[in-house]
Amino acid sequence: MKDQQLTSLLNQMTLEEKIAQLQQLAANFYEGAEEGGQITGPMASMGITDHMIENSGSVLGLSGAEQVIAVQEAHLRKNRLGIPLLMMADIVHGFKTIFPVPLAIGCSWDMERAELSAEIAAKEAAVSGVHVTFAPMADLVRDPRWGRVMESTGEDPYLNGRFARAFVRGFQGNELTGDVSRVAACVKHFAAYGLSEGGRDYNTVDLSERQLREYYLPAYRAALDEGAEMVMTSFNTIDGIPISGNVKLLRQLLREEWGFDGVLISDWGAVKELIPHGVAEDEAEAALKAIKASVDIEMMTECYVHQLPALVADGQVDESIIDEAVLRILKLKQRLGLFENPLRGADIEKEREVIFCDAHRTAARELAVKSCVLLKNDQVLPLATEQRIALIGPFANNGDILGPWSWLGSTEEASRLAPALEARAAAGKVTVAEGSGIESLTEEQWLEAKAVALEADVIVLALGEHSEMSGEAGSRSDIRLPEAQRELLARMKTLGKPIVVVLFNGRPLDLSGVIENADAILEAWFPGSEGGAAITSLLYGDENPSGRLTMSFPVSVGQIPVYYNHFNTGRPLHAPGADKRYVSQYLDIPNEPFLPFGFGLSYTTFSYSEPILSGVIMTKDQPIKVTVTVTNTGNVHGEEVVQLYIRDISGEVVRPMKELKDFVKISLSPGESKEVSFTLTEEQLRYYHSDLNFSSDPGQFKLFVGPNSQEVKERDFRLALEYVEYKRH
Predict the structure, then answer these.
(1) What pTM did the predictor assign?
(2) Cα(99)–Cα(495) distance, rounded to whole angstroms?
(3) Do residues 606 and 632 touch, judged by C-beta distance below 8 A?
(4) Is 669 exposed, middle or buried (0-12, 13-18, 19+ CB in 10 A)?
């Protein structure tokens, strides 16, 4: 269908039909769904009529080729103008084949595998009838109390932007209309949702516009520059205005300044939540504010369908605003090819072949291997095949390793640690005991675990959070392991055996009670469908850990937020000649995180030469080439993430102590050296000034190269440049 045909279609629609296109309803409302017509509880009170359902624009949370086909065909029989439905769902880190959670994928620093994970998720979702996924999440996160940190790729805006682009490419491919194995991507949550006060979900956000532009907007912009078709509003306020009614952020910045003309959707219930937020007196005012802010689709509340007709009738809303929103929705349906092929990729026969196939599981296992981070190793790992292993802990044989948003993943079919270890070790060398529950420890469990441990050469403790402890609405004030598990570990320590801890979790943890009692720690996160197999290959050294943290681990919750790219103070801790007390510090813990951004160990070691610069003066037209030689100084093959940071010594506003500007992941055999080169340009030194102009300042800079944000080699250079203003972006 061509653009003029879409305009003609729009002109044939009644006002009520147009407004119904702006309504997104759950699958329960639709004939053909398994529970179609089962409208109970809060949904029954929405007052949604059959006419509204027949003319609605999109469905939330429906999948499975048979159901999607049935719902779409039933809808088209009833819809007067034959406008197909959009099928949308949360396909965040896999459909049926579940990949590691996004925070773990971030720790791979591997854009190709990240893109492949999204491509496979799209392929499985598309053949099951899904058209749009609510991913990627590009929120910058600095507070691990917030459960949704698992859905981000970390605390760095540059790295998050790289991953956001990779995920969008994977979901959408190069030609969304013709490639029915892809789905449209919806970047979320716009904007700054990751800064929720106190790490509490749905909470207030307060920051300056300069900081918003500098740190929190770049990853969303990267996703849109890569072509993401949709944007989802966040639940929070910014500058006292909830996002779903925020004209400045949505209509002025996103639409007018950035030129985004795709579909903007609210998060679940967010339009009606303008009322409890305190910026709308009733549903009519909520609908008025959201449509004026240019929210096109209202998800799972009914303000638009009930209130917009009257708002148009009395002149508060111009019908042209509704026409713009409807046309954006129709254009997305056009780009997905739904007018010509309303069933798109839904295919019952092909679904059986594609979903959870061996090739997809292999890709999930490979990415899980790359995502695990070795946090500690006192010469305990890798394990030897002939060692007697006591596998103990609530995750020893637990399928709850998929993580939040593993909507259709199967915990029963997940690769668990116990059978994977038993298959890899010599016969009879692995003995399993539960040891404790996730949040409980009985004497019976302890005695069984003790007996097993005493017969072993090495104890492997599988510990962590259950999946409901993180994700949406999974905020926690105490981010230590549950007390029962810390007690189990402390008791195991008294047995005098080497202890390896494998952690399953969705956030950086306070490792108090773990780090001092474990000889080795492997951070596995929620590793997905192939987690057990991936972890086993790392524990036995079949694979060498290569993951690097993209979110700092705190010494304790009292440090939070703690992140590498922080500002200095007028009284920094390590200032020469500073008074030992009257500096910016805690009296009881260090300022620095326990484990910094970029950190991760390997079974080998790497050395770095001093960085060599092509010159010490940079100009707008003359970049600086940075070269460093990295050598594998150990005995096994390994991968290293070589990281480049800068610091602007004197800015118009204060600048971070370090900023990641580039990285390269290299592979080295024992004794092998590689020369790694980066090109640093004036453009990479630009930032938002107090007047919101985006420009660089002449002056002194520091450059850092190393394996993480703390262990770096340092050089100085200068930017020789007249002050030049650049257009905002």
Answers:
(1) 0.97
(2) 36
(3) yes
(4) exposed
> Residue 225: enclosing H or E segment and its boundaries?
helix 218-225
**Among the listed residues 665, 647, 615, 645, the one whose alpha carbon sits nearest the alpha carbon of residue 706:** 645
Asked if residue 330 has pLDDT above 50, the reply is yes
pLDDT tens-place string over residues 672-719 = 999 999 999 999 999 999 999 999 999 999 999 999 999 999 999 999
Round to whole Å and give the CA distance between 112 and 133: 20
DSSP for 317-376, written as a single string: S-HHHHHHHHHHHHHHHHHTTTTT-TTTT--HHHHHHHTT-HHHHHHHHHHHHHH-EEEE
Q: What is the pLDDT of residues 71-109, one digit of tens each?
A: 999 999 999 999 999 999 999 999 999 999 999 999 999
How many CB atoms lie under 10 A from the CB of residue 233? 28
Average pLDDT, the chain: 96
Catalytic residue among 110, 156, 267, 510: 267
Report the first-to-last Cα separation within the chain, whole angstroms. Answer: 33
Q: Across the strands, what pairs with 241?
A: 238
Cα dihedral 56, 57, 61, 66, rounded to 10, equals 90
Phi, psi of 132 (to 5 degrees): -135, 135
At which residue do the structure tokens 């003319």 appear?
55
Catalytic status, residue 50 = no
Nearest alpha carbon to residue 134 among 262, 228, 19: 228
Give the up-direction half-sphere exposure of residue 630: CA atoms within 13 A in the CB hemisphere.
24
pLDDT per position as a tens digit, 366-406: 999 999 999 999 999 999 999 999 999 999 999 999 999 89
The H or E element containing residue 668 is strand 659-668
Question: From CA 664, how far away is CA 111, in angstroms rounded?
Answer: 11
